Amino acid sequence: MAAAPAAFDRYDDYDAVGLAGLVDRGDVHPSELVEAAIARIEAVNPTLNAVVRRDDDRARRLAASGPPSGPFRGVPILVKDLMLEEGERTCFGSVFLRDFVSEITEEYVARVKRAGFVPVGRTATSEFGLLPTTESRLYGPTRNPWNIGHSAGGSSGGSAAAVAARIMPLALGGDGGGSIRIPASICGIFGLKPSRGRNPRYPATTSDYLAVDLGLSRTVRDTAALLDVVHGAEPGSQYWAPPPTAGFRTAAEQDPEPLRIAFTVEDLRGNRVHPDCEAAVQQTAELLESLGHRVVEDGPKINGEQVALAFIEVWAGMAAGVFHLVLETGEDLKRGVKTMRRLLGDWRTMKLIAWLDTRRSKLPAFEPFTWGLADHSRHHTPAQLDAAHTTLQTASHRYGEFLEEYDMLLTPVLGSPPLPLGAIDQDAPWEKLIEQLFGYVAFTPIANFSGLPAMSVPLHWNQAGLPVGSHFIGRFGDEAGLLALAGQLERARPWAGRRPTVTAAGT
Fold first, then answer.
1. Nearest 5°: CA angle at 297, between 406 and 489?
2. Domain spans of the chain?
3. May I ask the CATH class of domain 11-303+393-492?
4. Pick the catalytic residue: 102, 136, 151, 155?
């Protein structure tokens, strides 16, 4: 039997674009990159719990036989465990779905694979991606590489931790309320949430109104190059973002013209954030001014209390829709999710939740926050949900008008620095838990309900050595503008060389 290829010993010196260049020039074989990725998973994943399933054999076969000849041919990648891929288990972070094997590949993942990436495993997520920390009962806690007593964020916490720890230069994630930007901030890496309709969302296993897929990376150009190969609506898409005038990677490599940027350190309800988060924004504002941009303290005028309540109404409706995935399963709860594909278009959700509630003692698999959201939705009328959408749409118009005056808005990503594991207690009283989440996830949902692009840029670490990202919201369809600014900030204050406490470098 032939010996396994050696791992590429300079893997950590390159981002995904750099690794792809090596493969293209023949300097390294995809099998060497896959072996390097596997070695790094084995080295640090027992500590971090970022990668929840490995697919070593498939990755080795694909690398040996030759991945598609796309721009990322042969580069390993990790897939968030909310994304469907034919023949692969997709558990959605839920004990209830731990045996579900998808019969289809969603379009976003198909484009990633056609670009030449080699999937090597699945990353941890919170149950159904609903919480801003990755501590599901299925996977257990995913730990922050900068301090393993802290959360890696969520819901793309496994992807963020893996990238920060040098397991992978790039990993896939999705963002329905901040799930790319939150863990990017917490783990000290870069994360972009594209505009609504920029990337495919078929089949829409979660809301294509709120959520969009992309990835998390150490370098801006990796995210930009990924966006270059996956963007574009699919047939039947409800939303469509205008095509870029040039490549996203090209934009990231050019400094922008001087911008007019507003900033605020108050959340939607007028509360000031933790001093560490305020310091991150203030220091970023100073950096922007040093680069020639005009920075003004200002923010959209909206009723933040109404907006926060409206968002939780819509978020709860989405969670109730998740319960719909087991509709028509009867009492066969173990095998019922096999019908998921047929169920995506049927919305008899209230009937389902009432049925499930009578069997709640038999369904400990669903987590308390998931139940709480579903219960919240059940006790509100369709008219209230419609009113919530109207409230969010009104706020979206205010942001659109505000971004006619300014090119971008700078805010904190979160209301506080990274939280210790267990700080978000799903068993806390509902009102207490929701109030905690309102204060913590105070800025990122804006971009989701408005459809605007937004990013977390890793420019600040607090005295405890924990990352605190800076959050930028741009005009609809202007990912190129955000990436140009991110590239300029990265060149002015490089972050990719910073290494966390737990790192796979040199393995």
1. 70
2. 11-303+393-492, 304-390
3. alpha beta
4. 155
